[in-house]
Amino acid sequence: MPEKVLRELFFTECMVVKHMRVAVLCLFLLSVPFPLLPSQNPHSPIFNGSNAYEHLTAQTDFGPRPPGSDNLSLCRQYIVDTLETYNWTVTLQNFTYKDVDCVNIIGTWASEESSQYVFGAHYDTRPFADNDPDVNNRNEPVLGANDGASGVGVLLELAIALPIDIRSSVELVFFDAEDSGNIDGWDWIVGSTYYVDQLTPTRIDSINGMILVDMVGDANLRLPREGSSTQSLQDAVWDIATDLSHGDIFLEESGGSIIDDHRPFLLAGIPALDLIHTPFPWYWHTVEDTPDKCSAESLEVVGEVLEVFIVNQSTDFSTFTENGTFDVFLVALLVSPIVIVGIFILYRRK
Ligand code: 1BN
Ligand code: ZN
Fold first, then answer.
1. What is the domain partition of the chain in residue ranges?
2. Assign residue 259 a region: left if phi > 0, alpha if psi is -120 to 50, beta otherwise?
3. What is the distance between the alpha carbons of residues 208 and 233, in angstroms, rounded to a whole number?
4. Which of 43, 88, 106, 125 has the fewest other C-beta atoms within 10 Å?
5. From ligand 1's centre to the CA of 260, what distance in Å?
6. C-beta separation of 126 from 214 below 8 A
7. Which bound ligand lies closest to the C-alpha atom of 289?
8. Ligand 1 contact via 260 beta carbon (within 6 Å)
9. Residue of the nearest CA to atom 1 in ligand 1?
10. 258 lines ligand 1 (CB under 6 A)
11. pTM of the prediction?
12. Of the bound ligands, which one is closest to the alpha carbon of residue 190?
């Protein structure tokens, strides 16, 4: 074969190898997102909704539980006793707000390491039923079966339902003083704000996510996607709900943004998710927020999803990016092969 033809052939072969390298690189880059797709749930949850419902009625049996009240102290003792019976370590975080003694309750599982997740619920109830249609009831306190007791019921049952070997990955926090906003000059979310203010920068960095359960007990529970929550964390939870066939409760619709106990966490840069029934049920902040509106089945759905979430995280750890960051990452991922091909073409022309 003449030398010119040989050289031509050699050059063509080099180009084919180069093209193949680029193609393999592009395929690799494009395949990166696929391991991020949700996996099936091999863990069968054992969370018991009837137990959670019993925790709910145990709280409402104390009566309305506004900040600083004797009923709230009794309820606090019930939460502490339950956690300690299940061998959790309990720390009381005392603070004073507008001359009222308030207390956050923190449950941790004995471990050297600090937990990567915080699960939270408020345990106080609104001092006045100011949303009641009957003006005569507006000076009465709220019993808070759904708005207060339901979230606590879920957390207390999780304290025993979570597999022992992964309990240390979760801190259970029961916030005081969430629900007195706009009464006597009070703010909302006072307890959670205090809790986050006390976190050190190192501790903030170590928390991979916070999940709040608030008003999760209604018998016709509906949980749309709360608007201010961290989307990647919300997606992970919604994927699990879909896998567990709970898509009829974890709805694929936006539910607006709520001022709630997850907000101080978001402001501190911690990924956070609010699981909250919206639109608020008709009896919200009325004297009708009573246990008959709630069901063990609804509590079980929420508890199962959170149980599987923690189990999945223990085997398949993901970090959750702030809203918007993941979009930038995806765009970069899709654009990078185009940029690489462009550079290659430019390089070839030289
Ligand atoms: C949730 C339950 N919230 C009160 N009870 C938070 C909230 C704050 C909801 C302001 C609406 C307005
Ligand atoms: Zn409320």
1. 3-34+324-349, 49-316
2. beta
3. 10
4. 43
5. 6
6. no
7. 2
8. yes
9. 260
10. yes
11. 0.84
12. 1
Euclidean distance between CA atoms 167 and 61, whole angstroms: 29
- How many angstroms is it from 285 CA to the middle of ligand 2? 6
Query: Does ligand 1 lie within 6 Å of residue 259's CB atom?
Result: yes
Say if residues 272 and 265 touch (Cβ distance below 8 Å): yes
- Write out the two tokens for 199: 């976190």
- CA–centroid distance, residue 191 to ligand 2 (Å): 14
Q: How far is CA 35 from CA 15, 39, 315, 338, 349, in A?
A: 32, 9, 14, 22, 36
pLDDT in tens, the chain (350 residues): 555 544 554 444 544 445 555 454 444 444 444 444 555 558 999 999 999 999 999 999 999 999 999 999 999 999 999 999 999 999 999 999 999 999 999 999 987 678 999 999 999 999 999 999 999 999 999 999 999 999 999 999 999 999 999 999 999 999 999 999 999 999 999 999 999 999 999 999 999 999 999 999 999 999 999 999 999 999 999 999 999 999 999 999 999 999 999 999 999 999 999 999 999 999 999 999 999 999 999 999 999 999 999 999 998 888 998 786 555 555 555 666 666 666 666 666 65
Q: Per CATH, which fold does 49-316 belong to?
A: Aminopeptidase (3.40.630)
- Tokens 């986050």 sit at which residue? 196
- Give 179 Cα–ligand 1 centroid separation in angstroms: 7
Q: Residue 74 and residue 130: Cα distance in Å, rounded?
A: 24
DSSP codes of every residue in 133-176: SSGGGTTSPP--IIIIIHHHHHHHHHHHHS-GGGGGGEEEEEES
- Triad 71, 72, 77: Cα angle to 5°: 100
Q: Whose CA is nearest to atom 6 of ligand 1?
A: 260
